[in-house]
What does this fold into?
Amino acid sequence: MTLSLAELAADATPYLDLDQSAEQSTDQSTESPAPAQPRWADLRELSRYLRLGLADLVADRDPGPEPGAVAPLRLTKGRVRTAAICPAQVLAEVNPFGINFNIAVGIVCDAAAGVLALHPGFRPAGGTRWFAGLRASLEQEHPHLVEFVDGLGAGDRADFDHVVDDLSGVLPDLLGDLRPHRPTVHHRIAHVPVPGVQITGEIDISCDVSIGGSVRGRLLAEVKSGRFNPRITDELAHYALITTLQQLRSEQVDEPSEPPRQIIGCSISLGDLAVVPVVLTMEMLETSARRLLDTTKGLLAIDETMKAGGRPPTNPGDHCRWCRRVSECGDAPDLVMAEINESLRPLEPLRFDPDFDDGAVDDEFAEPGVDAS
Amino acid sequence: MSSPAGPGSDEPRLYRRLTMELADRLTEPALRCEEGEVRDLDRNHVVRVSDYDVGTAARCQAKAAAAPSEFEPSIFTTSRAVALRSMRWLRRTGSVVEAVGHTMRRARQADHDPSDGAPAPDIDWLGEYLGDPALAPIDVRVRIAARATTWLTTTLDVLGVDDPKQTQGWRFDIRPRWRYPGRGLALDGRVDLALPIVGNHTPVFVLASLHPAVLDQAAFNICLWTINQRKPPDEVLVVELPTASLHRLAVDELFDRGVDAAARAAEAVTARTPGADEPIVRLTRSPSDFTCSDCGWAAGCQAKSEFDRQPVHRGGIQLTPSPRTAVPPSG
It folds into this structure.
């Protein structure tokens, strides 16, 4: 029996080691992992760490020609990832975003999940394809995607529809009925730890989660068309950090009677046909905060380099395959460039061997009068 | 102009002073409007300055003078309206999802199935749009509902409302307004919510950011609210959706700001001239990628072309601030 997101939202207790958490909260001297359930003191300490670190980093930032003219430094999920892989990849943001087959599949599955979260009974009308069933909303929200799909050749288009239908078809079972759990869909979130710095993200689906019989937190879910991997945990920790820190109100003086809301991550991994819960510990949030500081340092260094007319450092590797500025970089490995150049080369026309016969083709499929040569 | 906020102050006189201040600052724009009271004039002969115009003029005054593009309902432009209308069903349904669903069904049925023959209250642009399967098929409607649900759920969370049934006495989508005496000039405001507080209501704006242009809109709306209520609010709240935070605006700082914003927008809107490719009066320009993206005058705008010639600093990761373009006089 596959776990659904709605079932997880209804009772996440089995996925939290509450006994371990309680034990650790009474014995702080052990070196075992931080408790899963954060406390206000933990959050304040985490917030302080992030604020002091960021304030130190952006203190010398050019204030711009006029006070307040500087746009906030945005720390997005994408920037955290790319800055860690290769600093120069961050500059690719100015290049047009390219859609490929896999990205297109991911966007349509994501849209399907967004619709099903609110309307679990939704199915494409008349047994049509999922892409066709979502086309009108995709045309508004992702016009480039629709253009891309419409431009696919007949074979690729059939493959595309097939893959999308296979993946989206399992979504109703994986999501369940989320309506009783106060769902939000494609929710843009942000946190401003210090003036001039904004941490942002967009959560595919979030909803209330019950622990021990009562609603005690939020469930943050990422829809992935592939299989579960550790990078998804990092993404969920990024969202969880924002959502957790949002709970600290500036005007809050007294310790609230209720503990902070428990944030639980979850990957809806269509490649595994599974909902994968991820318990986000304080340790993960701290790692995410450290990553933000590293990213900020990296972004400011790139900015300084660019201002001085220099080239940002690169870190070439296999990841250059997915970089939007690979053609202008010059540091990409030869092998990757050869692959890219190869893929851009027009395909040779197929040549059939007129004498080939594998002996397995039925006569009824043979087309008389066609000269394969 | 400062607000006497304390008890026993001259609150009742504030709205009169606001009215006089607006009338004074809007004299010149009003002279470009038809003579006569707004209520007596044909609606096509009334110049309306909305809070949307105020936001546009705060970003670029010249853009606010260009012919506004036709409103097109879409996923992006209808979800907020659906969310606000759903407020009225929160108490009855006790659920955001159900309230949104009810609002959307009602809007569609009102347009297409008025079973009792009486005019339904929701027959308007929203009902026409949602009720037309060619314009808004089911996937589009669900996406609108999803956005409205997310908007409402976050708003309630930020306001500390655990149970939607606690929204008793809330008012929503309030439209304060003011008419220039003797001229066809109308100021149309909008306040998202008003929370009941003993003896008064607290206006609440639900915003995506605290951009100065958006705060200008809020200030403009509070001026109109104060005139309509004949007293200023005790406090003004802002729900900032992405950060899930609640802000209190300093009420006494909103009045001067709101009058300035109204004057800036009225100058631009009253200068709209069909067929013109330049504003007929001198207006400020503040080009940016966002502002110029849908401006009818972008093609011939000198400030925009100067902006486009600026160093590539704006590219890259956009950390380095770009110098503001000098604003050349127009007209």
Notes: Residues 285-331 of chain B form one domain. The two ends of chain B are 32 Å apart (CA to CA).
